[in-house]
Specification:
By secondary structure, the chain is an alpha/beta fold. It has 2 domains: 127 residues, Rossmann fold, CATH 3.40.50; 198 residues, 2-Layer Sandwich (Dihydrodipicolinate Reductase, domain 2), CATH 3.30.360. It contains 10 helices and 15 strands. The strands form 2 sheets. Strands 14-13-12-11-7-10-9-8-15 form a 9-stranded mixed beta sheet. Strand 13 and strand 14 form a beta hairpin.
């Protein structure tokens, strides 16, 4: 049986734990706050999944076991993740999963982590961009790769979702000022929290041979509220090395939410939509009825598919460099986030 250690007993940590248990893996949770562990056991986990799982071990930070884990997941705030990642590498897990975004902009630990990671060979580090390993994303990529709608002319991705849903899942938080989410420097705001959109844009661009970004711009709606400083909306325009132009919009303002992608091709279009209980891929050719592919799911299913992907990586069925959630993909997102904040409301080059 595989053994998993998860840092962070918040909402993501609970989803990761439940998904790992669905795989039949052993799970230990670690958090610096004993009340977070108590809340996980007493309410958060049983209310979401029906009952507490007594096999899950609970440890406060500094008291957790070291070594002997096949997988280590870091479901922590971005601004503390790199320090923990460097420590986790010393345990040589098969898989090291880092939630998104990789870290806060210009994290001083990032270069040290990358240097240490590239010098070892026993660990595969991946990013927690779970939407990219969904069945619907696989379908979208297949359509783009096979040229079913011809050469891709334009590519847009939006993750526009009010963060009231996040705070509903974390009722102990009063608002963005109580968490990293309200501070762009810590990896929060729309640019960090909804960086799924940037990641999916890069994923679909690769499948479509749309090219890698070489230049762009980002306009941000910056807010200062109750001491918090964050971007409520970030609008990216990206130009690739093939001369194509695409767009990414991320916000924490929109109700109802819209998580959507559009690839416009020479002969038609392909759309990807993420709803609460299903994903949808829609292919439309001019003058013909659309073809729709529906993928029913629950939110926990997103993480279960992610666990299955990690299992395939460990089995050698997926090469690390070919994984949609490779470390390289996370670094590409971080590069774009750093350039966007450094050159806010103006152009930049990569």
């Amino acid at each position: 049986m595989k053994k998993v250690k998860i840092y962070g007993a918040g909402s993501i940590g609970n989803h990761l734990a439940q998904a790992a248990r669905r795989m039949g893996w052993g799970v230990d949770m670690v958090d610096p706050d004993q009340s977070a562990l108590d809340r996980m056991r007493g309410s958060l986990y049983p209310e979401r999944y029906g009952a507490w799982d007594e096999t899950i071990g609970l440890f406060t930070l500094g008291q957790e076991p070291k070594k002997g884990y096949d997988l280590i997941f870091l479901g922590t705030p971005p601004d503390v993740r790199m320090g923990l990642a460097r420590e986790a590498l010393k345990e040589s897990p098969e898989i090291l999963l880092l939630e998104k975004p990789l870290c806060g902009p210009w994290d001083t630990n990032l270069n040290g982590f990358i240097d240490e990671y590239t010098k070892q060979s026993g660990t595969i580090a991946v990013m927690g961009y779970d939407h990219a390993v969904s069945a619907s994303a696989d379908k979208m990529c297949m359509i783009l790769e096979t040229g079913a709608i011809g050469k891709i002319l334009a590519l847009d991705v939006q993750f526009r979702s009010h963060w009231k849903g996040i705070f509903k899942a974390h009722p102990w938080l009063k608002g963005p000022e109580d968490t990293y989410l309200g501070y762009w420097k810590r990896g929060g705001g729309a640019s960090g929290e909804h960086s799924h959109a940037l990641h999916l844009w890069l994923t679909f661009a690769k499948a479509a041979k749309f090219g890698r970004p070489t230049a762009g711009s980002c306009f941000m709606d910056m807010r200062e509220e109750n001491g918090a400083q964050y971007d409520a909306l970030s609008a990216f325009t990206l130009q690739t090395d093939t001369g194509k132009v695409g767009r990414v919009v991320q916000d924490v303002l929109s109700l109802p939410q819209k998580k959507w992608a559009l690839a416009q091709g020479e002969f038609g279009s392909a759309e990807w939509l993420c709803e609460k209980s299903y994903d949808l891929v829609r292919v439309t050719h001019d003058g013909q009825p659309p073809q729709e592919y529906r993928f029913d799911k629950t939110r926990p299913d997103d993480f279960f598919l992610e666990m299955q992907h990690l299992d395939a990586l460990m089995r050698g069925e997926v090469k690390p460099a070919e994984s949609p959630i490779s470390m390289d993909s996370g670094l590409q997102v971080m590069k774009l986030l750093e350039l966007a904040h450094k050159n806010r409301n103006s152009s930049f080059t990569l």
